[in-house]
UniProtKB/TrEMBL annotation:
<comment type="similarity">
    <text>Belongs to the LamB/PxpA family.</text>
</comment>
<dbReference type="Pfam" id="PF03746">
    <property type="entry name" value="LamB_YcsF"/>
</dbReference>
<comment type="subunit">
    <text>Forms a complex composed of PxpA, PxpB and PxpC.</text>
</comment>
<comment type="function">
    <text>Catalyzes the cleavage of 5-oxoproline to form L-glutamate coupled to the hydrolysis of ATP to ADP and inorganic phosphate.</text>
</comment>
<keyword id="KW-0067">ATP-binding</keyword>
<dbReference type="InterPro" id="IPR005501">
    <property type="entry name" value="LamB/YcsF/PxpA-like"/>
</dbReference>
<keyword id="KW-0378">Hydrolase</keyword>
<keyword id="KW-0547">Nucleotide-binding</keyword>
<dbReference type="InterPro" id="IPR011330">
    <property type="entry name" value="Glyco_hydro/deAcase_b/a-brl"/>
</dbReference>
<protein>
    <recommendedName>
        <fullName>5-oxoprolinase subunit A</fullName>
        <ecNumber>3.5.2.9</ecNumber>
    </recommendedName>
</protein>
């Protein structure tokens, strides 16, 4: 049994990046951009309504305030400021989730914030403080063994281990940086193979050929990967064929 999540609502105004409706037909959890790296009020509202109608769980994908860089540029944000910004993003999405008859079920950092909180205890604690400030003890989705999960556990929040079908892994279990070759996996057959290997066998091949053990409760596909909607459909079909049940963790 595994959850399948994807990043949704990653557009702004008339600019659309993700095929939200198509992705919602395949995933069980939706990481919805909250306006800091992508997304705007109308987009957040629309995707929350679509997710609620599809029975897909809604997650707040929080980010550094970086629309121009899509939240993928390294930034230094004071801990108190970051906590407030995380709470702000969760609160904004919660308005639209409730209006759609649903609720925000979990939190996942995006891009540079995701990678920073995997290793930076102070920034990880700030994100967790933001979750607590939002008023709801939401589960935190992230890399197994990360500083973020350590901070969340210390604060009494539930943690959900995540793995990626369309990203390369280093031998230490961290993701290959997007600035390096092999960071993103786009070949459909390889994405599907990795997804089944992670979900069924808790195994994935690292960039150097080593076999890694990855125990994950949720499997991610990036919504901005070329052909993401088709990849999500293929992954869901192959996971089901392999005897894996897809079910939201939240």
């Amino acid at each position: 049994m595994i959850d399948l999540n994807a990043d949704l609502g990653e557009g702004f105004g008339r600019w659309e990046l993700t095929d939200d409706e198509a992705l919602l037909a395949s995933v069980t959890s939706a990481n919805i951009a909250c306006g800091f790296h992508a997304g705007d009020p109308a987009t957040m509202r629309r995707v929350c309504e679509q997710a609620a109608a599809a029975g897909v769980r809604i997650g707040a994908q929080v980010s550094y305030r970086d629309l121009a860089g899509f939240g993928r540029r390294a930034m230094d944000v004071p801990a108190g400021e970051l906590a407030a910004e995380v709470a702000y993003q969760i609160g904004a999405l919660e308005i639209f989730a409730r209006a759609a008859g649903a609720t925000v079920s979990y939190v996942k950092p995006h891009g540079a914030l995701y990678h920073r909180t995997a290793r930076d205890a102070e920034q990880a604690a700030a994100v967790v403080a933001g979750v607590r400030l939002s008023g709801t003890p939401l589960p935190v989705l992230g890399l197994p063994g990360s500083a973020l999960h350590a901070a969340a556990s210390a604060a009494g929040l539930s943690i959900v281990e995540e793995a990626f079908a369309d990203r390369g892994y280093r031998p230490d279990g961290n993701l290959v940086p997007r600035s390096e070759p092999g960071a993103v996996v786009t070949e459909p057959a390889e994405v599907v193979k990795r997804a089944v290997g992670i979900a069924r066998d808790s195994r994935v091949t690292a960039a150097d050929g080593q076999q890694l053990t990855l125990r994950a409760r949720s499997l991610c596909l990036h919504g901005d990967t070329p052909g993401a909607a088709r990849l999500a459909r293929l992954v869901r079909e192959e996971l089901t064929a392999a005897g894996v049940t897809l079910r939201a963790f939240a």
